[in-house]
Amino acid sequence: MNIKAKIISLLSASLESRLLEYRKGLHSLTESKKSDTKSSAGDKFETGREMIQIEMNKVQSQISKTELLLQDLSKLDPINKYESVSFGSLVKTNQGTYFISIGWGKVMVDDLALFVISLASPLGQMLNGKQVNSEFIFQGNIYIIEELN
User: What is the DSSP string of 74-117?
Assistant: First the structure.
């Protein structure tokens, strides 16, 4: 399995785990809302149910976002080689290694520390379309693209 396939697998597993936790939370909130019985203090009952509904909406939003990230990852071909930086590129620079896909942050794969960033991030925007040996300045640092896969 190549490095990009390992990164995609790691991210997918993490997202699936996160999705499972969100769904468990949503189920728990749904059960709480169902079991909340009307009391003589009607306003308290309605307020409690509304608070649960707000939480359910937040969790549902997190589920939707996580599902979109998984969809984005599923579009990646770990074997594809790139001539210029784009979605799915693994970019080695003099400042670090970056996998251009979803905004995730630092990961460790095969003792290699790298950053998983999106094209929408400030650094992703700077890298977008660049080729091997391209140079640019980002936050006062000179970046040189050394390898591109």
Answer: HT--TT---SS--TT-EEEETTEEEEESSS-EEEEETTEEEEEE
Distance CA 78, CA 105 (A): 19
- What's the pLDDT band for 43 if we cut at 50, 70, 90? low
Q: Which residue range(s) make up the domain with 117? A: 90-148
| Tokens encoding 78 | 């770990």
Shared domain check, 67 and 100: no
**Same domain, yes or no: 135 and 95:** yes
Any domain includes 117: yes
Comparing CA positions, the residue from 78, 91, 79, 80 lying closest to residue 126 is 91
Domains contained in the chain, number: 2
* β-strand pairing of 112-117 with 96-100: parallel
The C-alpha atoms of residue 107 and residue 38 are separated, in whole angstroms, by: 48
Reported pTM: 0.85
* pLDDT for the residue 39: 52
Handedness of CA 98, 104, 109, 113 (dihedral sign): positive
